Amino acid sequence: MKINIITCHRAYNYGAVLQAYALEHYLESQENEVKIIDYYPKDLHKSEKQKGLKKLGRNFIRFFDFRKSEKVFGNFLKNNLKLTQRYYSLEQLKEEPPKGDLYIVGSDQVWNCNTRNGNDDSYFLTFVPKNKIRASYAASIAMDELTNEQKKRFADRLKGFYAISVREKTAVKLLNECEINNAEKVLDPVFLLDKNNWDELANKSKLNLKHEKYIFVYGFKRQKNIYQYARKLAKEKGCKVFSVNTNIEDYLLDVDKYFYNVSPEDFLNLLRNAEAVVTNSFHGLSFSIIYRKNVHQFMKSGKENSRMLDLLNELNMSERLVKNEEIIVRNFNYNETAKIIEKERKGSIEFLDKLCNINGGKNGQD
After folding, report:
1. 48-57, 305-314, 316-325 — most confident range
2. Looking at the 3D structure of the chain, how many domains does it have?
């Protein structure tokens, strides 16, 4: 089957590009012809909304961040993903949609209405010809609740989907509130590949970590409590603190070495060789699980934590959630978690296999 995927592959974010890689490679392993729709809306990398001199300073700094990220992540995409022609707008997608039999949206936060993604109809596949199959795989809403207006929009945009799957139990509940009752929960694409698959990428890293002993930090929003916690944990274990991200300001955080804008291969290599992982990231948690690391999970400041909480609860890993910044002493036994993941993985594969074996191209449209 000829499959086109639209997702957040152009985000300068390790989880975003690696989940896109995972879904494409799994579907290709099942003898499908797969491409990522190279959707690059012009406002994708706009800086945060700020005022006055602070905004000017932030935009200046982020200009250099983005140039570095564009090269690093662009090279990864070029070398590891099969991309369609570049699209810059929904209008362009509608004028000349990529040809295919099946169109999949997801994974990552494609339906988060607090970001530009969830307000962009491209991620609801409105550009897809009506005689083609539309579906979602592990689409994330990453919100705890929807407004009435948002509920109406979801109900309208998803009406013609052949199949719907989301990444969190909370998302299933929210879609039920939109009177969408056929949504299934599946695993994030990174779990479709096993540790050996990810090692193939990590082995391409040129970082020499053989004699290093460190706590690995992957944090968003520069939450200082995460780095303070990592430093305490490192002192207990006699380790250094290493961190990775794409913001130059992170050099100012309390770490022994900051890996600025390194490749996704380097990210994987850093995580797999760590003594432990401290993170407030969904994919930081996910790759810690794949590599069976003692993960110390923080919530992000603000909202949008349902995806981490749901995953921890489903895998019986709630004890790895840091509370009151007290150090989690006990190592985690992954035996039971591995069994749950394997069961969930089978269900996720069944969902994708059904999509890839649809006969006659019937798409469930009204």
Report:
1. 316-325
2. 2
